[in-house]
C-alpha cells in the first residue's frame, strides 16, 4: 500500500449546521456537499482544503458508530483517511501484515468512494480509513 495523500479527516460533531458555521465563518471554507449515509447512520458535510477534505459527521441515531463514539468520547477528531489505489487490496495487504481490520473488503462510503477501516487497536489508537475511487 502506498497512500498518495490524506483524502480526508473525519470529525464527529453533535450538530452539523452549527459546526458548518464554524468552518465557514471562522476558517473561511465552503461546505460543498451535505450527504446522508444511511447504513452508517450519519449525515456528512464536506469542505475541501487543498488535496484534503474535512468530513463532518453527525449521527442520525444513538446506536450508530458516530452516536456511540460521541457518547463515549464526546465530539472531536474521529478518523483519518488515506487515499490509496485500491482500498480492498490495501486492506488485505494490511491484514497480511497482522493489522486487525474493521472491514475485510471495501464498501461504498460518502462521495461514492470505496472505503474500509483498520482497527484503532492495531494503529496506535487512530481509527484509520483507506479509500479509493
Ligand atoms: Zn471518512
For this entry, give a set of tags:
133 residues, alpha+beta, 2,3-Dihydroxybiphenyl 1,2-Dioxygenase, domain 1, 8-stranded mixed beta sheet, 3 helices, 23% helix, 39% strand, globular, binds zinc ion
Explain this structure.
With 133 residues, the protein is an alpha+beta fold. It has a single domain, classed as 2,3-Dihydroxybiphenyl 1,2-Dioxygenase, domain 1 (Roll), CATH 3.10.180.10. The chain has helices spanning 16-26, 65-73, 87-96, and strands at 5-13, 31-37, 42-49, 52-59, 76-83, 107-108, 114-118, 128-132. Strands 2-3-4-1-5-8-7-6 form an eight-stranded mixed β-sheet. The structure holds zinc ion. The site of zinc ion has 6 residues, from strand 1 and strand 5.
Gist of the model:
The protein is of the alpha+beta class and 133 residues long. The chain is built from 3 helices and 8 strands; from the N terminus they run βαβββαβαβββ.
Our estimate of the beta-strand percent is 35-45%
Q: Which of globular, elongated, flat, extended, rod-shaped describes the shape?
A: globular
Largest sheet: 8 strands, mixed
Based on DSSP secondary structure assignment, what is the total number of beta strands? Answer: 8
Our count of domains comes out at 1
Amount of helix: 10-25%
What name does CATH use for the topology?
A: 2,3-Dihydroxybiphenyl 1,2-Dioxygenase, domain 1
Determine the oligomeric state from the structure.
Answer: single chain
Radius of gyration (Å): 14 Å
The CATH superfamily is identified as 2,3-Dihydroxybiphenyl 1,2-Dioxygenase, domain 1
Give the number of helices.
3
What is the second-level CATH architecture? Answer: Roll
Order of helices and strands: EHEEEHEHEEE
The chain-level structural class is alpha+beta
Instruction: Tell me the span between the first and last alpha carbons.
Output: 15 Å
Bound ligands = zinc ion
Overall average pLDDT: 96
Task: Tell me the strand order in the biggest sheet.
Answer: 2-3-4-1-5-8-7-6
Low-confidence stretches: none
Amino acid at each position: 500500500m502506498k497512500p498518495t495523500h490524506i483524502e480526508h479527516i473525519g470529525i464527529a460533531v453533535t450538530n452539523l449546521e452549527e459546526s458548518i458555521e464554524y468552518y465557514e465563518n471562522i476558517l473561511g471554507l465552503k461546505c460543498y456537499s451535505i450527504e446522508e449515509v444511511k447504513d452508517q447512520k450519519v449525515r456528512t458535510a464536506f469542505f475541501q482544503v487543498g488535496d484534503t477534505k474535512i468530513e463532518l459527521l453527525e449521527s442520525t441515531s444513538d446506536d450508530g458508530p458516530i452516536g456511540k463514539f460521541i457518547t463515549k468520547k464526546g465530539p472531536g477528531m474521529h478518523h483519518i483517511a488515506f487515499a490509496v489505489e485500491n482500498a480492498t487490496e490495501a486492506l488485505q495487504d494490511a491484514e497480511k501484515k497482522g493489522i486487525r481490520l474493521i472491514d475485510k473488503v471495501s464498501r461504498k462510503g460518502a462521495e461514492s468512494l470505496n472505503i474500509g477501516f483498520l482497527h484503532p487497536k492495531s494503529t496506535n489508537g487512530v481509527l484509520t480509513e483507506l479509500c479509493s475511487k
